[in-house]
Amino acid sequence: MAILVVPYHQDQRLADDVIPLSSGGEFLVLDPHLPDGDRWPRLAALHHAVAEQVAAAVRAGVPTTVLSGDCLIAVGVLAGAQRGGVHPAMVWFDAHGDVHTLETTTSGYLGGLSLRLALGAHPELLARPLGLQPLTEDRTVLVDARDLDPAEADYLAGSAVRRTTAADLDAATLPAGPLILHVDVDVVDAAEMPGLLFPAPGGPSTSEVVAAVRRVQDTGRVTVLDVACPWRPTEVEKVRRTRSDLLRALTAGQAVRPS
């Protein structure tokens, strides 16, 4: 299994310990040179580097996991799978919708645009520079998104994006063909996942999320597991253990070659 670590939140390099790694594991830490200046060209450069690594692993048929500091990296992961000759659907675990546009966001937080960018919004920012073919709504499943702004709720109500909970997600819910499985760790109930940047109560337990992820992996159709870790940098030992245990549980099932 290939593990690619992208220690960035948007275009900012994170401290090495924000994404905890097993001391015995094999992984590549991606740390490309980014141009000075505006954020979007920097993001495009970062995502291009991610896409190249993912494409190489996909071409080789290597089960791949990407660990990063936010959900935006999923755009580069999708571009990489496509460069590798695969055109996957997307299963997106997240407490939030991530379907804002630059016009609808009230906070200005770019992570809140992540899924919408993959679906084709603002193509001049990332899709065109990456050569990305946008996802179609009917090949996108949004799992346990419960903290939605009004504009996100309105968009989803009129879209073909499928919505479900972790408990109800099974093989019958999934689109056909290869899959990218994206998991934002904040999908887990905030009471069980301390230190999140954007905690959301009322979510599934860690065990429910891991079980749902495993059901998707057991289909043998997951091309890339993409795990976003939007945690606050902290040295609290309990938080480090919780993070490490979750990542270990999520990545354990990404060990068979996708069919």
Rg result: 17 Å
Succession of helices and strands: EEEEHEHEHHEHEEHEH
The total beta strand count reads 10
Helical residue percent band? 25-40%
Descriptive report:
By secondary structure, the protein is an alpha/beta fold. Helices cover 29% and strands 16% of the residues. The strands form 2 sheets. The chain has an 8-stranded parallel β-sheet, with helices on both faces. Strands 2-3 form a two-stranded antiparallel sheet. Helix 1 (39-59) crosses helix 2. The longest helix has 21 residues, at 39-59.
Helices and strands in order:
Layout: E1 2-6, E2 8-9, E3 12-13, E4 28-29, H1 39-59, E5 64-68, H2 73-83, E6 89-93, H3 114-118, H4 127-130, E7 140-143, H5 150-157, E8 162-164, E9 179-184, H6 206-217, E10 222-228, H7 237-251
Parallel strand pairs: 1-4, 1-5, 5-10, 6-7, 6-9, 7-8, 9-10
Antiparallel strand pairs: 2-3
Helix pairs in contact: 1-2
Features:
single chain, 259 residues, alpha/beta, two-stranded antiparallel sheet
How is this structure best summarized?
The protein is of the alpha/beta class. It has helices at residues 39-59, 73-83, 114-118, 127-130, 150-157, 206-217, 237-251, and strands spanning 2-6, 8-9, 12-13, 28-29, 64-68, 89-93, 140-143, 162-164, 179-184, 222-228.
